[in-house]
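ASSEMBLY PREDICTION REQUEST
Request ID: AP-0331
Submitted by: J.K., bench scientist
Number of chains: two
Total residues: 580
Priority: normal
Notes: Please return the full assembly, not individual chains.
Input sequences:
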Amino acid sequence: MGPRDGLQNEDVLVSTADKIELVARSVAAGITRIEAVSFVHPGRVPQMADAEAVMAGVPRSEGVSYIGLVLNRRGLDRALAAGVDEVNVVVVATDTFSVKNQGVTTDRMLEVWDEIAAATPIRKSVTIAASFGCPFEGETPPERVAEIARRAAAAGASEIALADTIGVGVPAQVRDLTRRVRAAAPGIPLRFHFHNTRNTGYANALAAVEEGVTVLDAATGGFGGCPFAPAATGNIATEDLLYALHRSGARTGVSEEVVAAAGTWLGGVLGKPAPALLGRAGGFPSERTS
Amino acid sequence: MGPRDGLQNEDVLVSTADKIELVARSVAAGITRIEAVSFVHPGRVPQMADAEAVMAGVPRSEGVSYIGLVLNRRGLDRALAAGVDEVNVVVVATDTFSVKNQGVTTDRMLEVWDEIAAATPIRKSVTIAASFGCPFEGETPPERVAEIARRAAAAGASEIALADTIGVGVPAQVRDLTRRVRAAAPGIPLRFHFHNTRNTGYANALAAVEEGVTVLDAATGGFGGCPFAPAATGNIATEDLLYALHRSGARTGVSEEVVAAAGTWLGGVLGKPAPALLGRAGGFPSERTS
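STATUS: Completed
Returned structure:
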């Protein structure tokens, strides 16, 4: 989700052409599912104002699907018109943050989700934001996350994602939430979304993989953050996640080198070094006995 | 080991007084075992040239023990004269790196270890460097790490540490090496040493804890690196490790806030921001419902 969550909090307005290049580099690396844009009010998130233009320019390869984030019926209509393959709806688990982020309480947003779900003819996932903690309310009750998951599933979610929006989670929470959400929404695939704000993001991602989760959000270069959460910082970086997965024996079909190069390139576009470390450190050293 | 591995690769020569303050801040935070200095040739590691002066100035509290790194008999004599409570001897697992780091092959260093061990009247640990990979030889055979651990134990090591000197390891390796070294050196306590060079350090640390390991190296602020390994970067940061442990339910007796403040202070001393994230992001948010 580099083109969406990776960019939305950046002060530098990235050109439509550069956003399309970021997507194209991701496709070239072997990534087959990309959250490319969000269809939210351009006054609220100016970086995403060109969502339609981005979607018109991304490479349409066989087997690559594009996700658009939507928060209401109007966003859904825009997303469908722009030709996304999936929509992703965010429901924030705590009321204070939900109101600040999207102007409605959690329960009201679940009603909006019901309306969106009923009107969506394509794949639709729900991302439960602040599942691991809230910048305003502190602890997020895991029972509340499970209940939101249950309601997401009841309206037909294709997938449920648990997001550590502010990067406070630890692996023990990953395992606990996985168990609870699987019980509350049986049979619905799980996805996780981690930020590395306090250096726990990669440990959380690997813990999710150990729990059998096969879908993880990440952003090229590790950029990102939430405009409406104080001190929120970058997503886990796709290239660093790939390094850890590959060295753990996983096969992803994605080139960590191509993503790392894209992360370094994106740092140039944004005028600051990528939080990702692989582009600086290089991959696992090859043998060069002297 | 912030005062030792955290500082030894920094270009800015830190004053003896600031090194003593770093140690004192660590003690004030509740840390009870500190690798404060190394007794190596000052021409090789200039940052450690004032080891005796540092040891003369550190607070001598009940229950706090100080470790000095030594690589030969002369270093041991200096360490004992300076009044350290323990010595730590580094054996590099691969010959190419061993020769570059300390001028001898691994087998020769194991003979040096035998000599040091026989002459050491206090606690003595062996740290096996490059246990997870070598900057020059690539893969480090885990069988070789286990064999070095066996020889370390045979000469009376109080503790064996496995070091990911260049930050290439992943949790699967942590678990594999834990099993192998426990079999090769039964009954000897294990310690791990991780660098976060490719964003796997904290995942590795938490994997070690899950394996029952109770001693982990870390450096205040996450500074550090090896002068003789290309692209080696910081140790895992003590404050970020504490955050993850505390949020996982562990009790350490160490204040993450005091360490985080020390990391920020140390960044000022070194003239660059600490790699640690807790000092920037803050701890887990307290409830402040608006």
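REVIEWER COMMENTS: The beta strands of chain A are 33-39, 65-70, 86-92, 123-129, 159-164, 190-194, 215-216.
SIGN-OFF: pending second reviewer
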